[in-house]
Amino acid sequence: MYTEVLCLGKQKKPEGPIVRARTPRAQNREVLATVETLLGANHLRVRCLDGTVRTARIPGRMKKRIWIRENDVVIIVPWEFQNEKADVIWRYTAPQVDWLRRHGYLS
Predict the structure, then answer these.
(1) Cα dist. 36→24, 74, 88, 97 in Å?
(2) Is the distance from CB of 56 to CB of 42 less than 8 angstroms?
(3) Closest residue by Cα to residue 82 from 26, 29, 34
């Protein structure tokens, strides 16, 4: 007797209209940035909205869960002791970037 096995695999979440997106918190030193290049070994070169180009690091808790590509918009936290380096804490999806542009967070 032959039985058919249905394999659904990973399903994408529907990307509907975004009502709200997470914004950077100034009291936590968070800054919006755009990924310029991928440097390898979980490091990125990002251009921040404060005009600084920094080397950012993807922490281990995000490494395999969230994939970051060039031109993605992210939130970073600069290091306290070395301002030219930072950690990535959030990546925005395309509808969230549109929401940020509409509400004046991005130009």
Answers:
(1) 19, 11, 13, 16
(2) no
(3) 29
**Domains in the chain, ordered, with CATH?**
26-102 (2.40.50.140)
Helix, strand, or coil (residue 38): strand
Q: Tokens 């060039």 belong to which residue?
A: 70
Residues in the chain: 107
Tens digit of pLDDT at every position of the chain (107 positions) = 444 444 455 555 555 665 678 888 888 899 999 999 999 889 999 999 989 999 999 998 888 898 999 999 999 999 999 989 999 999 999 999 999 999 888 87
